[in-house]
Amino acid sequence: MHRISSPNYPLTRLLLPHLSGRLVQLIATTIAAVLIAAGLFLLLIPVFMAAILLTLIHFAPSVVQKNFCPDVWTDEGDFVLNFRGQNIRIPFDGVRKLSWHPSNNPPRVRMSLTCPDRNGDVYTFIPDLKNGREAARKAIEQLNQLVSTNNSRPT
C-alpha cells in the first residue's frame, strides 16, 4: 500500500490519546482543586485556553470538511480510506474525480464518487506534502488520470 495522505498530525495523533486517559484527568482535576483552594484559580485560565485550542485543532478537519479521512492509501486498484476508525475500500472505477484545492492551508483533495455510499459521495483528505505542494499536486493529477482511464474502460 502507498500512502497518499499527510501523516503530519503530531498533536492530535500522539498527544490527545494520552490526554484523554483517566490518570491524566485525575492529575489535572487534583491540580485544579489545589489551585482553586489556594486562591490561585487565575492560573487555570491559560490551561483552559490551551485545552480548548487543542480540542478545536483536533476536531476542526472533521467539522469543516465533508467526510474527512486522516489516512488514505492506494492499493492495487483501490483507494483505502480510514474514515471514523474504519477502513473503506473504494475501487478506482468508483471514483469520478479527485479535485485539488491548493488555496486552502494545508491544501485539500476532494474525492468524488460515481455512486454514493452510506457516508455520501464526497471524501476529503490532506495530500502528502513532504516533497512540497507541487509534487503533491502532480501526484494527485497522476491519480486523477489513472482514475479517468479506469472509468473510461468498457466493462
Structure characterization notes:
With 155 residues, the chain is an alpha+beta fold. Helices cover 43% and strands 27% of the residues. The chain has helices spanning 10-19, 22-37, 44-64, 133-152; strands at 2-3, 71-75, 78-83, 86-91, 95-101, 108-117, 120-125. The chain has a four-stranded antiparallel β-sheet with strand order 1-2-3-4, with no helix packed on it. A hairpin with a 6-residue loop joins β5 (95-101) and β6. The protein starts with a strand and ends with a helix. The model has no long low-confidence stretch (mean pLDDT 82).
Envelope shape: elongated
User: Segments where pLDDT lies below 50 for 5+ residues?
Assistant: none
Q: What is the beta-strand fraction? A: 25-35%
> Largest sheet at a glance?
4 strands, antiparallel
**Distance between termini?**
25 Å
Order of helices and strands: EHHHEEEEEEH
Helix content: 40-55%
Number of DSSP-assigned strands: 7
Number of helices: 4
Oligomer: single chain
Mean pLDDT: 82
Secondary-structure class:
alpha+beta
Evaluate the radius of gyration. Answer: 20 Å
Strand-helix topology:
Blueprint: E1 2-3, H1 10-19, H2 22-37, H3 44-64, E2 71-75, E3 78-83, E4 86-91, E5 95-101, E6 108-117, E7 120-125, H4 133-152
Antiparallel strand pairs: 1-2, 2-3, 3-4, 5-6, 6-7
Which key terms come to mind for this protein?
155 residues; alpha+beta; four-stranded antiparallel beta sheet; three-stranded antiparallel beta sheet; 4 helices; 7 strands
